[in-house]
Every structure is written in structure tokens, then in C-alpha cells.
Amino acid sequence: MRPVLLVFRREFAAYFSTPVAAVFLIVFLALAAGMAFLVSGFFDRGQADLSGFFFWHPWLYLVLMPAIAMRLWAEERRSGTIELLMTLPVQPWQIVVGKWLAAWAFAALALVLTMPLWITVNVLGSPDNGVILSSYLGSWLMAGAFLALAAAISALTKSQVLAFIGATAVSFLFVMAGFDLVIAAVRSWAPNFIVDAVRSMSFFAHFQHITDGVLELPSIIFFVSLIVFCLWLNVRIIEVKKAA
Amino acid sequence: MALVEARDLVKRFGSLTAVDGISFSVERGEVVGFLGPNGAGKSTAMKIISGFLEPTSGEAWIDGHNSHTDPIAARRKLGYLPEGAPAYADMTVAAFLEFVAAMHGMTKAQANARLAELVDRIDLAGVWNQRIEALSKGFKRRVGIAQALVHDPDALILDEPTDGLDPIQKYEMRDLIRSIARQKAIIISTHILEEVEAVCTRAIIIAKGRMLADATPAELLSRAPAIGTLALALATADPQGAIDILAKHPGVGAVEIVQRHNGVTRLVVRTAKSRPSADEIAGLLGRSNISVTEFYVERATLDDVFRQITNHGAEN
What ipTM was reported for this prediction? Predict the structure, then answer.
């Protein structure tokens, strides 16, 4: 476990070694609050809840999570430090997990910084704090899935830009999977079980289940298994690249 | 089994064969120089032995542990300086070396004791709390060496340890390598021949992925072509007689006049297989009453050997 923690600490500190982290956090907070207040009409709705805030998370994460994770492996490849890292006497999975945890912790920090919104709704009314808490946890879990996906894609390239574009494109498919547009396109040629499979991959639908407080467990299992799968994929990508 | 052992290493990237059947072993106390032109496959071979790349075929062992089937045990015994001495630019020297030490499983106390020793030895005290991105090339390379030595490994693989260093730093780096050589098996790669003569007990010449030679620097020098150059100074203003005499010797090729000044003529004599000795020349010219005031033999260098061996390899 110690190597995981060591990698985690190094990576987490690396986020703050440049002003990029601060810029990222400001952009995230501005977008998250902006969407909630301006687009969802936080004040006009007359309801003391944060559903207008959480509604936008899948869309925000679509670009923001790849931005957090793109550096994880691509930068190691570009600078050559991957050679150093991969010849230390630790298992590849320990490095993969440590890196992902650092990104996930950074996402947690971004979410924690939105807490003033939570305080605001409590001042203005009496929201269901249980729903808000589970929405926060669900949002964090979903962020973890986005990050695991983006980290695996980052391991494919030495270009952070390519890692970002690739991760955003793949994430977009996952977010959109539940929408009629996609489902209709799939239904036109695929049998029902494939249509159902595609629908069940939707980040958007699963996140909705969690924020609505219904069907939470299957959605939690979905995100957790996707994270585990992507981390496994990340390890495989690194091993395959070694033999290439 | 030797401390470092490579057997029939082959690495292909698509249609390119970067490493083509390299086998050798390095015992404790040896410093082996990988010598070859750029792109010869030196770095690729080192990446395979360190376990960073998987070979297409063949195997490598560090202290008996297979680099690929038992990588963790092999890496504990190995210090590795990758090509270009990469290090995390955003970390300070201290944080970086502490990170590497901890990843090697050293406790904080062990790491501190070892790092205190290395800081002195590698002269890093002045930059200890500086970020690596702010360091000069020479210091970056030293940090890379420190990183490879942190866990006091038995085997060291250093890819171009003196690349980018100024002459004094190069001298110090070689000194450092010599000072630890007795207890370790060391492989360094270089394309600087004088480095091989300065620090290596053995040289392996690689070109186009193949091993062309594996011998001590002295053995390699003895393979030097006998073709060389003599420089003579004669106490005469008219060297024609001397040139005629010299040209008759079977070991002499061309004779050139370099300079005529104050009754002294300087000649350069290109020699072929059987080089005439100083005695012979003095004797030959003395019979015609021409006295030789200076006599230099240009010594064959590893450069000549290297050029000869790599050209020969390229023809095959």
C-alpha cells in the first residue's frame, strides 16, 4: 500500500506546483455556479434544493475531468520520467491506482469548494440534506469514472492534447448513451439487448438515478465497476506498450 | 551467474531490428562501456535489461533475477539512469530523491542517512532545495546519478552519464564511477571513446543492433591498424635524398614535406603494415649523413579501432 500512497502524494502535490490548479478550480466553480444560477434559474425556481446545480455535472465533467487526468501518463511519456517510474521496484497497478486517486482527490477538492451553495440553500429554506449529500457523493463517484477513463486514455499517448481530446470524445459517448438521439440511432440496426446495453452505460441516466434517490445501488455498482475496469485497462495499456 | 547477464536479446520495432542478438555478462568490479554510434541500439539494450522494455526474444537477469518474469526483485538490485536523465521537473531535488528512496522501500531514517552521504559525494548541497526544472544540465545529470545510487544497488546501468557535462564535470563523473566501481557491476553507454579508456575495464562495441566486439580497451587498441603516421624533423635544407631513402622502405607509404625552416625540414611519413622503428630510420638516414632531430610516432587511438570495427560491421 505504501507505493500507492507515495505516488498519490507526489501526483497530488504536482497539481499545485503550477498555477494551473488554481485556474482549473476557478473555472470549475464559475461554471458550476454559473450553470446553477443563470441557466437553471436557481433563484427563480423557488425551491430549496441543488438539483439545478447537479444537473449540469455530467456536462461539466465531460471537459473538466479529462483536463485533470490528461497529464497523468502523457506527461510521464513526454518527459521520459515514465522510464524512471516503471523501473522502480513497485507493481504497475500501484502506480495506476496512486495516480488515479490523486486526480480523484483533486476532484473532491473542487466539489468541496462548492459547499457555499449548500450553505446558501440551507439559509434560504430547508432542503433535503440527505439527497444533497448523496448527490455530492454520486457526483464524486461519477467524477471517478470520468477520471479513470481519461487516465487510461492518457496512457496511450505522450501528448496531453491528444489525451484530452480522446478522453472527451469517449466520455461524450458515455454521457450521451442514454439520450433518444443515440438510442434511436442504435435501435435502427441493433437487436434489443444491445439497445438496452447501450442505454445502461449512460453516465447521465445513472447520475440522475443517484440525485433522484431512486435505483441508487445499481448505479453505484455501475460507476464502481467502470472505475475498476478502466484502472485494469490502464495497467494493461502500460504493459502492452512495454512490449510494443 | 554474473551480476548482470544478457542472453540473445532481440528487439524489433515493426520492421526495424533495434537490438539483434546481444549477449554478455558483467561481474562485480567490472565497468563495461557500451560503445556505438547514435542509434546503434545501446539505449534499447539498456531499456530491456532494466525491464522497461520487453525484448522480442532473449532474456536478461540482474543478480539472478529475470528482468521480466521477476521484475521487482531485479529492480531492487539495479540502479538505472535512463537516457536524458529524466526527473520530475516540478519537484525539488530533495523531494525527488526522497520519493525515489521511499519507492525503493527505504524508511525515512535510512533515506536520510543515505541521502546525506550522496549529497556530499555528488555535490548536490547547493541545489538541494531547488526545483529540478531550474537546474543546469550538469546538475540534472547528477540528480539522475543520485537517483540511481539511492538504494546502493549492486548493479548500475547508466545511459550516457556524462552527456552534456562540461569537461570538469565529466572528469568528476568519471571519478565518481571509478570510486564505486569495485563493489558494483556497472554498464555505461557512451559515444565518447576517451571515456572508455578512462573508466571502463571492458568495452562492448555495438552498431546496428549487433555486438561487434567485447574486449578490454587494451585488447581493442592492439587491434588498431598498424597504419599510422610518423613525424620527423631532419637537420637538412634539402630533404630529397632522405625522402628517396625512406620511400624505399617497404613499410613506408607517402612522405610529405610539411615545413622547411632554418635548415630544418619537417616530414610526415605515412606508414603501412610494418612500421620502421626509430633505430631503423636513424640508421638509414645516418648512412647519408642526415641527422634526425625529432621523431614522433602518432599512437593509434580507440577512434581508429572503432572506425575500423564499425565499418567492417556495416559491410557485413
Answer: 0.90
